[in-house]
């Protein structure tokens, strides 16, 4: 048990170090030796846990998705589905603000993987997106049952519309240089989703 815990701690330390290295040097220029030096271990130790830097990055990506998911999951206990939407969006935006460098790195390496690697990454992204989307649909279904959102549009489409708005706000934030304040856009986004652009 102790050995398992020690191995897990080493793995997390390597991932933390790799996140800093990728953020500082970029994915293309970073080497496994750089990650080892940052983690304060021998290069061979890093290879005991990961076969290459692509696997390191994939592990960072999976860990990040899990952290975001768990933070959003906390708000699923809220009784009011609209407040659930607001809190979940705020949480996702807050996480992006806290980890903006990692998100930018993820966006920037789109062309850095070969075709086979991209298929692996896309499968991981699709799997995690499905989990987030399931939460969104459950909240939307609850809101529809209470008469809080339109019932003439399928739940799946409403969730797609909300997801599209969310993505647009995030990428607009990225293009603007990831300035502070993303989390403050969560409530206006939900208000716009619920009420549209028509003047009151």
Could you list some keywords that capture this structure?
DNA-binding; mainly alpha; TetR/AcrR family transcriptional regulator; Tet_transcr_reg_TetR-rel_C_sf; 200 residues; elongated
Our estimate of the beta-strand percent is: under 5%
**Tally of DSSP β-strands:** 0
Q: Which ranges are low-confidence, i.e. pLDDT below 50, for 5 or more consecutive residues? A: none
Number of helices: 9
**Share of helical residues:** over 70%
Q: State the major sheet.
A: none
Shape: elongated
Alpha-beta content class:
mainly alpha
Terminal residue distance: 61 Å
Order of helices and strands: HHHHHHHHH
> What is the averaged pLDDT score?
86
Radius of gyration: 19 Å
């Amino acid at each position: 048990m102790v050995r398992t815990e020690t191995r897990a701690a080493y793995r997390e330390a390597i991932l933390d170090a790799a996140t800093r290295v990728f953020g500082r040097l970029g994915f293309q220029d970073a080497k496994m030796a750089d990650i080892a030096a940052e983690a304060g271990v021998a290069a061979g130790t890093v290879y005991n846990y990961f076969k290459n830097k692509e696997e390191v990055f994939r592990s960072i990506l999976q860990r990040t998705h899990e952290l975001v998911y768990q933070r959003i999951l906390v708000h699923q206990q809220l009784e009011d589905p609209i407040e659930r939407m607001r809190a979940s969006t705020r949480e996702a935006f807050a996480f992006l603000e806290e980890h903006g460098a990692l998100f930018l790195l993820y966006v920037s390496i789109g062309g850095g993987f070969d075709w086979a690697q991209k298929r692996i990454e896309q499968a991981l992204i699709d799997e995690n997106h499905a989990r987030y989307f399931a939460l969104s649909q459950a909240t939307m279904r609850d809101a529809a049952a209470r008469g809080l959102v339109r019932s003439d549009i399928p739940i799946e489409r409403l969730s797609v519309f909300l997801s599209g708005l969310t993505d647009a706000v995030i990428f607009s934030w990225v293009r603007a240089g990831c300035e502070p304040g993303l989390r403050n856009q969560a409530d206006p986004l939900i208000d716009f989703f619920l009420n549209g652009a028509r003047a009151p």
